[in-house]
Fold:
Amino acid sequence: MKLESIILLKEPHKSFILFHETQPFSSWHSHPEYELVLILKGKGKRMVGDHIDRFKEEDLVLVGSNLPHEWLCDSEFYDNPDRFQGEAIVYQFSIDFLGNEFFEIFENRHLKLLLENSSRGIKFEGKSKRQIMSIMTQSLKRDEIDQVYSLFSIFRILAKTTEFNLLATPGFMGTFHNQGSEAMRKALEYIFTNFHKKITVKEMLKITNTANSSFCRSFRKCYRVTFKEFLTNARIGYSCVLLKDNTLSISQIAYSCGFENISNFNRQFKKIKGLTPSQFQDILVTKKSVAINEK
Structure:
């Protein structure tokens, strides 16, 4: 799947975008604007850079400028023939929408640092998330003046919070936008949007328009591992998310992540994680039980 570069439509008299999304969420794409996304209804697979995870209601993520991303809802949210059943609130703004100096003033140094870190994608948690969620849901009901100051209120929280996790790996954007690696970007995009399916080297050669030896050499140079190692790691990484979610059987998880049989899944999982999927899940269940008992 090709990475789309989306040009966002902003009303001429407004400096930023605030909208209530009720249409199917955009596929793998990027844009220069920063984007703060709150999921109201929906669950499925979220991809931000090279980070793959599950999302559900109340998922709150800040996506940095030009960082590829996608929220892909599970099939049940497309079952209604009348309309898509997912729902989100989205703020989008450019780095200079308040002028060239706003994020450069000394008092905004913490906010500026957080925006810089959003080049990896930021998932918010805890009290900060709840405060931002409340502001975002109320903003839809307010007039344009109050919406501006609501965004300032969000900035105030972002400038002070430590309740967040960075998503993509530190070197992702530098590698992804490296000059002269268009073929490798296509390879990466295809892997992240299709890792749950069977992917062959032959397909990758066609997508990247390269020869076998050239593709293998360039991929390893760019991403420090072979194509097959990268693909397997992406699949195992997502399987850990599904094992934590604990709603599918281990065999269902194996097939959902692109493994053709359970034995290969078990073998690859143990090779990378040092234990079997069932052992990994048992540890998660034990930790969850301990956390509940400690409350």
